[in-house]
Design a protein that fits this description.
- By secondary structure, the chain is an alpha+beta fold.
- The protein has two domains: 17-218, no CATH class; 220-293, Alpha-Beta Plaits (2-Layer Sandwich), CATH 3.30.70.120.
- It contains ten helices and four strands, in the order ααααααααβαββαβ.
- It has a four-stranded antiparallel beta sheet.
- Strand 2 (247-252) and strand 3 form a beta hairpin.
- The longest helix is centred in the N-terminal third of the chain and has 33 residues, at 17-49.
- It is elongated.
């Protein structure tokens, strides 16, 4: 039975006003979901175990312990985020992303709401490593969702934006160093519970690894190299059905000396599946190489200003 693909929306076609409004609403719904996941990871698993794996929430854990819990972690985090937002608005001006402001305020409100609805005096379970994984997993998945929408949860990200504006400092290294210092500080503050410092150190390593991989997963696309004699059919399908572009190069086989066309294109996962099925049905002799890529910059993909 011949392959009859469903035509995908044209990503290059200008959107209507209604589509743009819905796009904004959908983006904020996704940001809300990501922020809620981070808030759950922080309040229910990070705060009760006093994990210090970086960020404003870790600073809140340490400060709350220093003042003997006269102020809760949720309150300290809300105050710190509020101060950072005011400073960022003054220093960064109108260019400061409204999505980050929304996410930062929402994160503070959600942790305060959880504190009011579900007051915790001890960890939920007795399995500290499990709760560390849930802490890191919640932060990683939530952060990746926010990054996919061009937002962040504020905190140390705001500090990084300010530093970046006034210097050429290596921001990633600076933030990693500050996170490491928090881990060390937790060793002094929780000196009677060395496992907290050790788990925090493990969590810091896991966080950097998991966040990067989760973000790559969200951004992953498929890079195709197709060697074929039917370049017109393949390119017509890519252009008219998938609404993507492609590049054609002439190549010569080293063994046969036969001249063919080499087509390169980048597609998302849905489009990749459709192209693979099309090639299988219409050009089974095509030689196709498919690789994963999570760093695609250009029209129809991630735009760098």
């Amino acid at each position: 039975m011949p392959f009859k693909p469903k035509e995908l929306p044209d990503v290059n076609k200008p959107k209507t006003k209604g589509q743009r409004i819905w796009g904004v609403i959908l983006s904020y719904l996704i940001i809300t979901l990501g922020t809620a996941i981070i808030a759950v990871g922080i309040y229910f698993f990070k705060f009760p175990n006093h994990f210090s794996v970086g960020g404003v929430s870790s600073l809140a854990v340490l400060v709350s312990q220093l003042v003997n819990h006269a102020v809760t972690e949720s309150q300290i985090m809300s105050i710190a985020n509020g101060v950072l937002l005011v400073v960022a608005l003054i220093v960064l001006g109108k260019g400061f992303a409204i999505k980050t402001i929304y996410s930062t305020v929402l994160l503070s409100l959600l942790t305060l709401l959880f504190e009011w609805l579900f007051p915790l005096t001890a960890p939920i379970t007795s399995h500290m490593f499990l709760e560390l994984i849930l802490t890191i997993g919640g932060i990683a998945i939530g952060s990746a969702i926010l990054f996919s929408q061009g937002a962040s949860s504020g905190g140390t990200d705001v500090i990084a934006m300010i530093i970046k504006k006034f210097s050429n400092a290596d921001i990633g290294t600076a933030l990693l160093l500050s996170d490491a210092l928090m881990v060390v500080a937790s060793g002094f503050i929780f000196y009677d519970k060395p496992e907290i410092c050790l788990y925090s150190a493990v969590g810091l390593v896991l966080k950097s690894f998991i966040v990067d991989n989760v973000i790559d997963g969200f951004n992953r696309n498929k890079y195709f190299i197709i060697v074929t004699n039917k370049e017109k059919e393949a390119c017509d399908f890519i252009h008219n059905m998938l609404h993507r572009g492609a590049t054609i190069s002439k190549c010569i086989g080293s063994y046969t000396g036969e001249e063919k066309s080499m087509i390169t294109t980048v597609l998302n996962r849905t489009q990749a599946g459709m192209l693979k099925k099309f090639l299988k049905e219409t050009d089974p002799g095509a030689f196709t190489v498919i690789t994963n890529s999570s760093d695609i910059v250009g029209k129809g993909f991630r735009i760098v200003s």
